[in-house]
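Re: the multi-chain job from yesterday

Posting the exact lines I submitted so nobody has to dig through the queue logs.
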Amino acid sequence: MSRYHIFSPSDAIDYARRHGPGLGTELSAEEVGDGNLNQVFRVVDEESGRSVIVKQALPYIRCVGESWPLTRERARIEAGVLLQHGRCCPEHTVALLHQDAGLSVLLLEDLSAWRLWRQALLEGNAPAGAAARLGHYLARVLYHGSDFGLASTAKRAEVARFSNPELCATTEAVFFDDPYRDHQRNNIAPGLRPLAGQLWRDGALKRRVAALKHRFLCDAQALLHGDLHTGSVFITEDELKVFDAEFGFYGPMGFDLGSAIGNLLLNLCGQPGLNPGEKGRAEQWRRLEEVLTLWRVFHDEFTALATGCADPALAEPSYVEEFLVQVWRDSLGYAGTELIRRTIGIAHVTDLDGIDDAGLRLDCQQNALRLGRELILGAETCADGNALRALLAAYGTAPRADR
Amino acid sequence: MSRYHIFSPSDAIDYARRHGPGLGTELSAEEVGDGNLNQVFRVVDEESGRSVIVKQALPYIRCVGESWPLTRERARIEAGVLLQHGRCCPEHTVALLHQDAGLSVLLLEDLSAWRLWRQALLEGNAPAGAAARLGHYLARVLYHGSDFGLASTAKRAEVARFSNPELCATTEAVFFDDPYRDHQRNNIAPGLRPLAGQLWRDGALKRRVAALKHRFLCDAQALLHGDLHTGSVFITEDELKVFDAEFGFYGPMGFDLGSAIGNLLLNLCGQPGLNPGEKGRAEQWRRLEEVLTLWRVFHDEFTALATGCADPALAEPSYVEEFLVQVWRDSLGYAGTELIRRTIGIAHVTDLDGIDDAGLRLDCQQNALRLGRELILGAETCADGNALRALLAAYGTAPRADR
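And the result, structure tokens for all chains:
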């Protein structure tokens, strides 16, 4: 195992040359990391135009510095998740070409010619098929990483192998703790303070958030991506690949689904500010359809996969459906926590913060907080897509008479 | 670390002499294991009368032989559980005096002068306080091994450390799989076949069993004992200690509670055969009270401990109560699976099989199967002790007019 040292651009080039497939001798490297945790080099073969990504975990949080240490174990986790998910769904998982555990380095296929799904949603030209492709990815990776798809001894060993306490603790703090109290890590626009204060005093809401956090802490249903927002997904017109899997662990399926759904709904909430008028309403309508498509494809493909379940008890078909009802409810609840934490927590999204007009921005942020609360409180009674449609009607997505 | 070899009595004496506190030179050893998995020596200092237990895991299931291998990892798990539970509740956990990981050997305090709780229940002279003591034990060990009592990073590390796939797989097969299908491992009295066949065709029941199994597979709520029947509990008139913790793992709290409750109810179901007439009815009444006491003490002490919970989300008091409602329901469900698996599965109990009269025995066994089914199906709607009292009325425990 190599000895750890922080890569310079020329280290990245050396590593890419040794382990990258078909790279020549004239290589250049550029640091392209826009994330908060790692350094990421794009290494290009100037002659052939071929390129790869060299991603290295630093022993601290990059955007903060050495004062906030963070385990390099996350590189091992990320490599393991990408390999595992890549086995189940290679068409939608970024390809891992090589890894070096000692250096905490991953060599990845370069998708920088693709677009981030979040960016396409912001530009109003996201391809219609992306939601279905993500539903397909989730059905395959969550099924095959669960007790439906694995023998229990193998699955229990995987739960231990993907134990990821430090990164999970970060998620727990930013999703379930900070936004529900007045904490210095929060980033709250002054106009949102009154509404945030209401959330902090809302006992019914905090009880549901406790239940969602407890499930996140305990319920090892499947090997999750763990950070599945729309900025963790690269797309083209007819392709989709998920990347950035260092938050992976064994957790509740609804967390991955809810993170994705929550980000579609953040974009929905931002539309009146991003695209005032008719265009924004049409985009909102598309976001709702994407949420329902994502769920439908996930549900139908998971159900189909479960007909091959080898577990004598879990194979009971009526149980599979009962379980998926619970996953739907969890997904809505986790989506609600995503809406809230992205509005008043430490890490925001452009879908809201990128709205130029301060008044419109505040309106959209307030809507996101209200919708988040409604989803968390309504998750247990929001039985299906139609119920979700009705719940979202107040947010501009009701089908108009002329549709 | 010592090299593994199977202990002879003189090996056990050597080991006890080296590591046992205050033992002299004149030691004798007797094999006293009546379990199915291990060999157990009682080593006695003939002069002082002091004694210890030397328990060694064999690399196979003892009662079957070398053809059924079983990981010696279970000795490491058992030592870890006893240490952890002993820290939380030394008064009710058998003391671990020494361990040798290489030899898969544990040196334990000798409780053979005490009685097994099961035996006392069979003899009709179990002390009234035992159920409350077990409730106290469960509140302390389950609270302190859970996300209520541990920081999440520490708890996630514990989940991985106590990963126990092989022994869990045994539990899964004998609790949740075999009794619900016609399997060669089952041990079914000929007169029970019709009723067993009904269970195998009962879709509603199998759906609930799937949910209970799935929770057992996924839901890492606390460090469980994992095999908490009345034969894993030594008692005196005013003491109680739990032993045999090799099935320990991170699982749902209701499984430990349900195993204990299920065994009290197995004894209840056996009473018409064990003690026909008035005495049996009085014993049944006592079992019901013990079940309710065990739960009440567990519930109240867990609730009191949770006032010190340091987790910002889980500390919400209304959530603690909501969570305990789910634990109650799980407990009834798992108790139901214990009743069924001990009646038609591989491992039976004397509370039923020890009934001499064949007709009475069959009646009692049928009652156990029916009650098991009712508990599993009724768990989600059986809201409290009064509801359980009503459910059990049909099994002879209704308060009579003259009480």
